[in-house]
Automatic annotation (TrEMBL):
Intervals holding CXXCXGXG motif repeats: 155-162, 172-179, 198-205, 212-219
Gene3D superfamilies: DnaJ domain, Heat shock protein DnaJ, cysteine-rich domain, Urease metallochaperone UreE, N-terminal domain
PANTHER family, alphabetized: CHAPERONE PROTEIN DNAJ (PTHR43096:SF48), DNAJ HOMOLOG 1, MITOCHONDRIAL-RELATED (PTHR43096)
Family affiliation: Belongs to the DnaJ family.
Residue ranges occupied by any CR-type domain in the UniProt entry: 142-224
The entry's keywords: Chaperone, Cytoplasm, DNA replication, Metal-binding, Repeat, Stress response, Zinc, Zinc-finger
Function: Participates actively in the response to hyperosmotic and heat shock by preventing the aggregation of stress-denatured proteins and by disaggregating proteins, also in an autonomous, DnaK-independent fashion. Unfolded proteins bind initially to DnaJ; upon interaction with the DnaJ-bound protein, DnaK hydrolyzes its bound ATP, resulting in the formation of a stable complex. GrpE releases ADP from DnaK; ATP binding to DnaK triggers the release of the substrate protein, thus completing the reaction cycle.
Assembly information from the UniProt record: Homodimer.
Domain notes: The J domain is necessary and sufficient to stimulate DnaK ATPase activity. Zinc center 1 plays an important role in the autonomous, DnaK-independent chaperone activity of DnaJ. Zinc center 2 is essential for interaction with DnaK and for DnaJ activity.
Gene assigned in the entry: dnaJ
Protein name in UniProt: Chaperone protein DnaJ
An example Gene Ontology molecular-function term: zinc ion binding
Cellular location(s): Cytoplasm
């Protein structure tokens, strides 16, 4: 698949304005309703723009490429995601980071009104979102979770048709059985024919003579549903997973909305994540630092031996390769960065004090023992 930046012909450092400008130009050029238009190219452009115009999705793309989207969604066609989105993606989304309104730019370019440009009219189900708390380890290694939520789902009695079982079907008066409402739009590109599904019959051209009693003819009903969420290894706090078609059911069996899972990761008591690296600190004694030692370090994979060479200074960082977090969608892992902190001894026995004083003398250092052991150490050559 082509790189989104290449698709729009902009550099990776392009500003939001550059991207918008490049998109408008290309969308004009390749719009399928235009002579010489190219449907495939147009979809690619839209897909690229949908991602690059959204700061959080853009940074995700810069970091992970397309893997995240694919890992999270249940394999939806990116264009249908786009198409459903435009003209009203933000419905049901409060502060969603995908809350981009394509209606604006399209009404801008093609003179469509927001609603006319939505292929599924008002029938599409609403997007839902929910938070999911997972442990640090689950985020690192991936997991599967069952989530339960109450939502408007397909009516179990009529299967979404809205018809009372056994009811006869009559031709829809609004679309005359076509299922579509056609209209001509005058735009700067000339007249463009648009058709939207009929909102009366939900695009099916027929209306039942008796409505389903369970759902009142809407084809949907409030239900509690349990959904399996596959969490890819390497997901981080604040990222979202999109489950295509798992939002609320659409009117009369039309397309369902999507469910967005906001991932919240619980902190680990000793390990902290920085991108794909894990950072941690270990205390070692003054003696271990001076003489060298081997210590056990806690990692995501259990304890790992780390060799501390003689003469190690406090604050030195050791790298444990491949002990970090997987890059989303790959098996490649970051590293663990271990900072050693040297602990100055505090409770010293008489014997220890004497030995340390001897060491100080050996080094030619002045130690003011009278004023408390170590609160004043000076180099006599200063
Ligand atoms: Zn029903
Ligand atoms: Zn109709």
């Amino acid at each position: 698949m082509a790189d989104y930046y290449d698709t729009l012909g902009v550099s990776r450092r392009a500003s939001a304005d550059d991207i918008k400008r490049a998109y408008r130009k290309l969308a004009h050029e390749h719009h399928p309703d235009k002579t010489g238009g190219d449907d495939k190219k147009f979809r690619e452009i839209n897909e690229a723009y949908q991602v690059l115009s959204d700061p959080s999705r853009r940074s995700q793309y810069d970091q992970f490429g397309r893997t995240f989207q694919e890992a999270g969604s249940s394999g939806g066609d990116p264009f249908s995601d786009f198409a459903r989105g435009f003209g009203g993606f933000s419905q049901g989304q409060g502060s969603g980071d995908f809350g981009f309104d394509f209606g604006d730019i399209f009404s801008d370019i093609f003179g469509f009104g927001g609603n006319a440009s939505r292929p599924s009219g008002r029938a599409r189900g609403i997007d839902l979102q929910m938070d999911l708390v997972i442990t640090f380890g689950e985020a690192v290694f991936g997991t599967e979770k069952d989530v339960s939520l109450q939502k408007l789902d397909t009516c179990p009695m009529c299967g979404g048709s809205g018809a009372e079982p056994g009811a006869k079907l009559a031709t829809c008066g609004k679309c005359h059985g076509q299922g579509q409402i056609k209209r001509m739009q005058r735009t700067i590109l000339g007249s463009i024919a648009t058709s939207t599904p009929c909102d009366e019959c939900g695009g099916r051209g027929k209306i039942p003579e008796a409505s389903c009693k369970t759902c009142g003819g809407r084809g949907t009903k409030q239900q509690i549903k349990t959904i399996k969420v596959v969490i890819p290894p390497g997901i981080d706090d604040g990222q979202r997973i999109r489950l295509t078609g798992q939002g609320e059911a659409g009117y009369l069996g039309s397309a369902a909305g999507d469910l967005f899972i906001n991932i919240k990761v619980q902190p680990h008591p000793t390990l902290r994540r920085e991108g794909n690296h894990i950072v941690s600190e270990v205390p070692i004694s003054f003696y271990q630092a001076a003489l060298g030692t081997k210590i056990q370090v806690e990692t995501l994979d259990g304890p790992v031996e780390l060799r501390i060479p003689a003469g190690t200074q406090s604050g030195k960082i050791f790298r444990l390769r491949g002990r970090g977090v997987a890059h989303l969608g790959t098996k490649r892992r970051g590293d663990q960065l271990v900072t050693v902190r040297i602990i100055t001894p505090t409770k010293l026995s008489r014997k220890e004090k004497e030995l340390l004083q001897q060491m100080a003398q050996e080094k030619g250092e002045f130690v003011d023992v009278e004023r408390g052991m170590w609160d004043k150490i000076k180099n006599q050559f200063e």
